């Protein structure tokens, strides 16, 4: 996979550090690379459209003998009245989870899209209530290199 193309997202650095500091904590990646800055790189899916950017791959966070069990998979950026990022249903969920509301900001690299991400109520809930609604997640970058993502 081209580590330059797709969705680059570290999710939340403090969460990643917490998981890896636990004796049985682990972060497993499937079809997800790491870029030079240590961010996860999810590749674009052919199911993407102008109003819905879909990304493939999976990152599983696991600790406390499975009490902490959270996954980033079937990741989508949805452009509606309020752009958001969502993931597939979690262990105890039946529906997709909208993790964060997004706001597009000026991209530091030409040809990319950058967003700030603020945790939603559903995002805070699936993370065990450790974080609050509105808490920032890491900034995410979508690099259209080889993926032709456009909202124009």
Automatic annotation (TrEMBL):
Residues 6-143 form the Htaa domain. InterPro entries: Htaa (IPR007331). This is Htaa protein. It comes from Rhodococcus koreensis. The lineage of its organism: Bacteria, Bacillati, Actinomycetota, Actinomycetes, Mycobacteriales.
């Amino acid at each position: 996979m081209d580590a330059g193309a797709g969705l680059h997202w570290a999710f939340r650095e403090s969460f990643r550090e917490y998981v890896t500091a636990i004796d049985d904590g682990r972060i497993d990646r499937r079809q997800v690379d790491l870029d030079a800055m240590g961010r996860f790189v999810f590749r674009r899916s052919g199911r993407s459209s102008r109003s819905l950017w879909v990304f493939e791959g999976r990152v599983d966070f696991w600790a406390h003998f499975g009490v902490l069990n959270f996954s980033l998979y079937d990741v989508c950026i949805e452009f509606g009245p309020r752009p958001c990022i969502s993931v597939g249903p979690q262990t105890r969920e039946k529906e997709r989870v909208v993790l964060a509301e997004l706001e597009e900001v000026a991209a530091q690299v030409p040809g990319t899209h950058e967003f700030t991400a603020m945790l939603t109520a559903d995002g805070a809930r699936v993370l065990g209530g450790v974080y609050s609604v509105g808490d920032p997640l890491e900034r995410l970058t979508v690099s259209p290199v080889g993926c032709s993502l456009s909202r124009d």
